[in-house]
Amino acid sequence: MKYKCLISNVLCFSFFVVGLLSCGKLNDKVAPVASKDAFHLTDTLTRVYENPKITEFKLFIAQLDSSSAVSVTKAAEKYKQIFTGQSTLLCDSGFVLFQVLYDSLELNLSNVHQNDTVNYEPLLLKNEAAIPQKLKDYRNNLRLNGFKISSSDGVTYVEQDRNFIARNFYSFVTSVMKEYLTELQKENKEGFANETSITISPKQLVDRNVWYEKFVYENPAFVFAKNCKDYQKAYLSYLLSGYQNTRIYVNEDTKELSSYYVNAYNYLLSKYTDSQTAQLVSPYYEALKQKQTATAQSILKNYHIKGLIYGAKH
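-> structure tokens emitted (314 positions)
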């Protein structure tokens, strides 16, 4: 299940109830936009109207084939045509429209791929000569249009190639948007988990928690602020409650803590002492070390009630 599944699992995963797609595998300090619609401006008569550039891009996207990967490239090229020379904030708003299309196409292409009777396993072979030309063409078409073939436990799936975003949009958007997209690109490359275990290191898990904490605090009006809060909530949930075979306890009977989480908590408390994440983890970790299970569960319940984490099954 790699990074794509972290994003899907912000919506639904084994330990947590409904909660993110995109991947979405994260600007000159963005001026607040929460007080007005990201796609509209207000004129001197207080009449709300849509920026013509946004209208033009919306209309273009609406006529694209929602089942063809080529639509992503067409949309990216149209974006450049429309938004070259425009303000970075307007470019951010245009990118939001692109991302909606990108997410929709990823879902559609993945569904077609999963329901197809074609055997895509040869795409996992390291020997290119053993891959049928038809499958190579299929893979290359996805690559050219912002997607890639990934796999989990031998099962292939289609997901976004965040390098496509870097090549086509970084020079247009605000620095805050670029910072967010760069983080998503990094996480997409690193992955997150396979079907049963977290594959990133304890340090990486902690770093992601603190990155989202800091980013959300510094950019409360960011256009993708809710996505960031969802990522933050999911990562904190994993950090506190474990994930399938990456469990908090290596032995449930003796309550012996997993070295993965001991390393994660020690790293967090030593490097990010003043972070909110550390303040949340500290009393929980202390309860775990003292084998005060009821106290630890009470802390998790309290965090869940406050909306800080998803409902955990310990």
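The beta strands are 40-42, 48-50, 147-152, 155-160, 249-251, 256-257.
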